[in-house]
Design a protein that fits this description.
about 110 residues; mainly alpha
């Protein structure tokens, strides 16, 4: 499954980058996202690298969102979320990330 693949893969260094985290954050709206990219990422190669990182990050966020869904479905007694997972889904949203990726590739 996608969740299993995400769990096995080593984490991309880009995910720990402060600028990447700001760009991906739910509080960074799409227009601000695009403005920051235009200002700080003028070249194709850098935008391509960001797009690839976003694709990979979307898989991670979706896997965590699916885990939360399963925990809610089976009940608190059987399912458990790590605080790290809660922090991830409180700060990022897969639909928002997909929108940002779509705008980046436009």
């Amino acid at each position: 499954t996608v969740a299993a693949m995400a769990a096995e893969a080593p984490e991309n260094e880009m995910f720990r980058d402060d600028n990447f985290q700001v760009l991906c954050a739910l509080e960074t709206k799409t227009q601000d996202f695009l403005r920051r990219i235009e200002k700080n990422m003028p070249g194709y190669t850098v935008k391509k690298r960001l797009a690839d990182g976003l694709k990979e990050f979307i898989v991670k966020v979706e896997a965590t969102e699916n885990k939360l869904y399963m925990v809610k479905a089976v009940g608190k007694a059987k399912g458990k979320m790590e605080s790290e997972d809660h922090a991830l889904i409180n700060k990022y949203n897969s639909l928002d990330l997909k929108e940002k990726l779509q705008q980046l590739n436009a």
